[in-house]
Here is the input.
Amino acid sequence: MPQTIIVLDFGSQYTQVIARRIREANVYSKVVPFDTSISELRKLDPVGIVLSGGPASVLTKGAPKPKSAIFELGVPVLGICYGLQLMGKLLGGGVEKSQRREYGRSSLKVLTKSYLFRGLPSKLLVWNSHGDCLTSLPKGFRALAQTENSNFSAIEDPNRKFYGLQFHPEVEHSEKGIEILRNFLFGVCKCKADWDMEDFTVSAIRNIRQTVGSKKVILGLSGGVDSSVAAALIHKAIGKQLICIFVDNGLLRLNEREEVKKLFRDHIPGKLKVALAGSLFLKRLKGVTNPETKRKIIGKTFIEVFDQEVKKLGDVDFLAQGTLYPDVIESVPIGGNPAALIKSHHNVGGLPKKMKLKLLEPLRELFKDEVRNLGMTLGLPKKVLMRHPFPGPGLGVRVVGEINNHRLRVLREADAIFIDELLTTGWYAKLWQAFCVFLPVRSVGVMGDERTYENVISLRAVTSSDAMTADWAQLPDKLLRRVSNRIINEVKGANRVVYDISSKPPSTIEWE
Ligand code: XMP
Here is the structure.
């Protein structure tokens, strides 16, 4: 087991970012709720603890607090923002509401030598977001750095190895923030940087073998990053005991089924069952226009088809899923914390319960970028690992209104052109997602000497880091012009292209 840094979550929207930054330094980190018991924490045997920021004020009654014995575990502690104020208050210092709140960038002046700022310039721009501040230090502490609004922007008790930062080192806008975190990890906690994908792969394979024994495992392969990497990993561990099921629901993109089969043939040479269920899905969706009803029909039919395939296989004990770490972190529902918002939709929700199978989730420790690294270690092609997310209901939520074969064909062809141009120009990799949407609106056009009366295609391209918020991408005019020309010229059934300039919120990424 690699050395562990525990991140106690006080509800900051940046808690996961802290954990990721630590892992990027090759140190394993785990996010746990702020009130995790001391015995649980001891079991995790941390080499250091980080207290995250949070939306609460330590001055209010009922503010979230860790178990007080956390400061007696004998391991270094780093408090960030709310974490610093908490540490200050709990250890006997003073915290007050600031005269002037500090939001955004401010200039930090390093006052004295310390582990945290070792090798760094004495002036740094750092990113703050706080309304309270520490006004007097607890016993044993000294100030390491200050900003205009805060005399104790960084503090330490070198004997007990307690550190505090009023600013957020984990966000990009803080200069040398990553180095400050690294100084905590390697200078203070003496971490060994023993978290890497090759080691993870070896131990994950060992765990899968131990858990599964000689039993059979099924996995719903979508062709997306998570399920493909999960399949490759499990296949490496148990070979033909893994059976992948790919459901063609008739709502896939151009050539998608063939691409998944090819990926499988070339890189995961195990058992793949393809269920051709397009006509069943389309029959059930006939005449349905309400987005929620569509989603329900697609979800329910998926489970039915999947279930039938599994029944044909006889004895199966495990259902494997590509669940990732952000889905399993218990979010701390503290007022005002966007991280506590609804989690993104689940592709195969309801499957395990219905089928009474044990779950196998070998990626549940990993963040998305780590899954991509793992995929690389397993030899999966970059093209697959860099793919944009694709929703479970597929083109079903991208044909607005009723779904039929004509509309799907128009959408598929237009979408393939858009993606092709994004790939050619290098824009694909800069976007979180890009796709076409078929609008059930017809407009008049003219082609040659003839009038046309055909449908509208909307282009959607967004930047985002987690799909919770997203902004429309400012694609170059030239690229948009080319995509529009190609779609109108090459796709029969579309004579107008529009570009969606809505951000999330208030819009969503998908149209339905
Ligand atoms: P929205 O449209 O809610 O989408 O802004 C956020 C992200 O979730 C994806 N999405 C889904 N993914 N099953 C999925 O696996 C679904 O039913 C589903 N609906 C939306 C969407 O593509 C975006 O990345």
Notes: Residues 27 and 193 are 5 Å apart (CA to CA). DSSP finds 15 helices and 18 strands in the chain. The longest helix spans residues 291-312. Residues 336-348 have pLDDT under 50 and may be disordered.
